[in-house]
Amino acid sequence: MGTGSQLAAELFEQFAIPHFDRLYNFACWLTHDRQEAEDLVQETYAKALKGFSSFLPGTNFRAWIYKILRNTFLTSRTGLKATATVPLDLEGEEETLPSVKKTPESILLQRSDGQFVQQALEQLPVAYREVLLLCEVEEMSYQEISATLAIPMGTVMSRLSRAREALRNGLRPQFQKGCIQR
Amino acid sequence: MACESWKAKLDTYLDGELPEQEMRTFDAHVRGCQSCSADALTRVQMKRVIQVAGKRFVPTIDFRRRIEQSVTPKPRRSFRLGWILAAATAVILVVGTLTSTCLGSWSGKGQASRDHVYSEIADLHVATMASSSPVDVMSTDRHTVKPWFQGKIPFAFNLPDLQNSEFSLLGGRMTYLDQTPGAHLIYDVRKHHISVFVFQERSVSLSLKLPASLDDTSLSPKQLPFNMETWSQGGLRYFVIGDASAADIDSLAKLFKAAS
């Protein structure tokens, strides 16, 4: 290994390792399987290391490596299967949905132990799940999400809005149950 | 603006993605609008719950290790580089051994500087002993040797009277320690040669970053045939080094201390 390659490898290590835990978490959410998630993360790191020379210094490394992971997932068998079930009306609707009315949601959310939310997240189509996780868990900006998912900013906003609405719909039975119990 | 128009942008507002001016306007509205503030509260709570619920999966230690190993650079040295590194290692070992034996009892702040000083002193002694002309002024008379240094070094020092001792003066020469001029005296005791180095304490301390209060120290290396003693007196730093016994080194050091 030449000095240049050695330095590049050291630089890659410094950049990539801090994202490991979160990449793994994201991979688990995408695949719903820990073994598959490990394979996905391993392949992501291998691809990223190999293609590190194509990473432009000064640009967003996090968005770059998440994009590799996501693209790797999409071309996997699980990924192809998951995306085949994406609703047809997912794209092309830039308007945001009407907001929810005042409900006892806030009280129930306060009491929630996260289990219902996890279940609701699991039920979401992968396109909604990933955009929501990138925004809320990874705390990416719209611009970062746009770069990671390779979609326009407007689509990021509309997809996020729909994902949130879908999650609320998924949680609605729990909310209703909570209301009855109260 | 109707509340519905505000609410259409509520998520973008809570994500902190509205332009700065619009954020301020939104802040003012949310504070004054009961419906929007209630909606904002619910959505913030939803964001928090997703954030917590979303951080769900933790990798195993074994998997982490595998990934770390896969990205850690594995240095492959060239044949030439390998030889250079081997040679460098050998040099470091030799110097390190000499230094560590001289300074085995020392530790803490200034250790690296002291290592460097003693390594230099040992080198000067060895190089002089190996030279075909180890002294520039060859005399057993201290009254000849001492004046020889006048004008050559920026300080004066006293040489001990060797009467009733086993030591004999062979001569002296100019020396330098890190660009600091000093006197190098060579003595003989039972066919063993001993070097005495004298420098200005301040110059040595400054140039070599030695601690100002370097205590008198006697060193007895176990792996190399050198004994060394050093002390500071009258603003001068003395080093006595040679392959003579530690007792001889100490005796000569005491003669110098008595003469100064």
Topology of this structure?
The complex is a heterodimer of chains A (182) and B (260).
Chain A: H1 3-16, H2 20-31, H3 34-50, H4 61-74, H5 77-83, H6 105-111, H7 115-123, H8 126-137, H9 142-149, H10 153-181
Helix pairs in contact in A: 2-3, 2-4, 3-4, 4-9, 7-10, 8-10, 9-10
Chain B: H1 3-8, H2 10-14, H3 20-32, H4 34-54, H5 61-71, H6 79-102, H7 111-130, E1 137-138, H8 142-148, E2 168-177, E3 180-189, E4 192-200, H9 201-208, E5 217-219, E6 227-233, E7 236-242, H10 246-259
Antiparallel strand pairs in B: 1-2, 2-3, 3-4, 4-7, 5-6, 6-7
- The CATH architecture of the largest domain in chain B is 2-Layer Sandwich
Number of strand segments of chain A:
0
Which band does the percent of strand residues of chain B land in?
15-25%
- What is the percent of helical residues of chain A? over 70%
The averaged pLDDT of chain B comes out at: 80
> How many domains in all of chain A?
2
The CATH C-level name of the largest domain in chain B is Alpha Beta
Q: From the 3D coordinates, which CATH architecture of the largest domain in chain A would you assign?
A: Orthogonal Bundle
SS-derived structural category of chain A: mainly alpha
Distance between the termini of chain A: 67 Å
Work out the radius of gyration of chain A: 19 Å
What are the low-pLDDT stretches of chain A, counting only 5+ consecutive residues below 50?
92-102
Kindly identify the CATH topology of the largest domain in chain B.
Phosphorylase Kinase, domain 1
CATH level 1 name of the largest domain in chain A? Mainly Alpha
**pLDDT under 50 segments of chain B (min length 5)?**
102-107
Examine the coordinates and then state which fold CATH places here, giving the name of the CATH topology of the largest domain in chain A.
Answer: Arc Repressor Mutant, subunit A
Described by strand count, sense and barrel closure, the largest sheet of chain A is: none
Count of spatially separate domains of chain B: 2
What composes the largest sheet of chain B? 7 strands, antiparallel
Describe the global form of chain B. Answer: elongated
What proportion of the residues of chain B is helical, as a percent range? 40-55%
